Amino acid sequence: MAEKKQQVSRRQFLNYTLTGVGGFMAAGMLAPMVRFAIDPVLQASGSSDMKAVADMSELTNEPQRFDWTIEQVDAWYTSEVTKSAWVYLDENDEVVALSPVCKHLGCTINWAGSEDHPNQFFCPCHGGRYYKDGVNVPNTPPNAALDVYQKEVRDGKLYLGNAVAREEA
Ligand code: FES
């Protein structure tokens, strides 16, 4: 039985070589693009979004505004965002941390912002009002209570996270 010799022709050799080198180069170019496209998915989720915003010793029964900054990541863009909360201790010395964003059209509310309603939150845009606990006063423009911040007290400090609607809190 004659032994058949397996030989690679010059054409086949060139085809294999060019395919291999071309594939290698394509993979080198595509890998960073794929990585760039799915990078936000690979990032750790924002469970560590709680920020220390005040010492517990600073809190009183009177709402005070506290501001802090967070790094916000929107897909590939990172920016610094200032957040605010109205914080006080209720009658049981429980922390109440309210979002300052009016539920009507998003203006910023203030505590005792109206001389006529010194014990309420007041929105200067359209006269929206909220009771101290953040519930909207009936017959004023807002139709929902202020959002409340996720909160945590650790080592004498108040940590706040995201503001969420009351049903989710
Ligand atoms: S935005 Fe606050 S009352 Fe309209």
- Spatial extent as radius of gyration: 30 Å
* Uncertain segments: none
Query: What is the number of E strands?
Result: 9
- CA(first)-CA(last) distance: 84 Å
CATH class of one domain: Mainly Beta
Largest sheet: 3 strands, antiparallel
State the CATH superfamily name of one domain. Rieske [2Fe-2S] iron-sulphur domain
Ligands, ions, cofactors: FE2/S2 (inorganic) cluster
Label the overall shape.
elongated
Question: What proportion of the residues form beta strands (DSSP E)?
Answer: 25-35%
Going by helix content, strand content and strand pairing, the class is alpha+beta
What is the name of the CATH topology of one domain? Rieske Iron-sulfur Protein
Query: Count of DSSP helices?
Result: 1
CATH architecture assignment name of one domain: 3-layer Sandwich
Mean pLDDT: 89
Percent helix range: 10-25%
InterPro entries: Rieske_2Fe-2S (IPR017941), Rieske_2Fe-2S_sf (IPR036922), Rieske_Fe-S_prot (IPR014349), TAT_signal (IPR006311)
Pfam families: Rieske
Keywords: 2Fe-2S, Disulfide bond, Electron transport, Iron, Iron-sulfur, Membrane, Metal-binding, Oxidoreductase, Transmembrane, Transmembrane helix, Transport
Family: Belongs to the Rieske iron-sulfur protein family.
